[in-house]
Specification:
four-stranded antiparallel beta sheet, three-stranded antiparallel beta sheet, 7 strands, binds zinc ion
Length: 141
């Protein structure tokens, strides 16, 4: 999939509304999920083709930055909001690359979309959804 095709596919997939509810009330196995620190879960289930793999990650925008990451990633983001956008994007890449997030955290945050690791490219986008910062990604090659 070319980057333009992946970006268009991701933009279309992002039109699918998120379900955000308490995790204990959420029982689907269809969507891709992100658990929030306060007990909610974000569920995203865009219609997908056979070869399309999606991931979502969300964090509470106003929560404090993790002190160890604030130090490690100092100077690599531009303000509180930008930190969580970079974190969520890195989480989405970790999920799609099947790499532990601790490995991602030891690196720099991912830079602008698309990003490639070991030949696998992720196209992602980040937006606000209520009180959350949400990153959406598709494995595009
Ligand atoms: Zn779900």
């Amino acid at each position: 999939m070319t980057h333009d095709a992946a970006s268009a596919r991701l933009a279309e997939a992002m039109l699918t509304p998120l379900v955000i509810e308490h995790a204990t009330d959420h029982a689907c196995t269809r969507g891709t999920h992100s658990r929030i620190a306060d007990g909610r879960v974000v569920c995203w289930s865009p219609p997908r083709g056979d070869d399309e793999v999606y991931a979502v990650d969300a964090e509470i925008a106003a929560q404090p930055l993790p002190p160890h990451l604030e130090v490690r990633w100092r100077g690599l983001w531009d303000g509180h909001d930008s930190f969580w956008a970079a974190w969520c994007a890195s989480e989405v890449c970790a999920k799609l690359w099947d790499v532990p997030i601790v490995v991602m955290a030891a690196r720099s945050p991912v830079d602008s979309s698309p990003v490639t690791l070991a030949g696998h490219t992720v196209t992602y986008a980040v937006r606000h959804e209520g009180d959350l910062v949400v990153a959406f990604g598709v494995l595009s090659g």
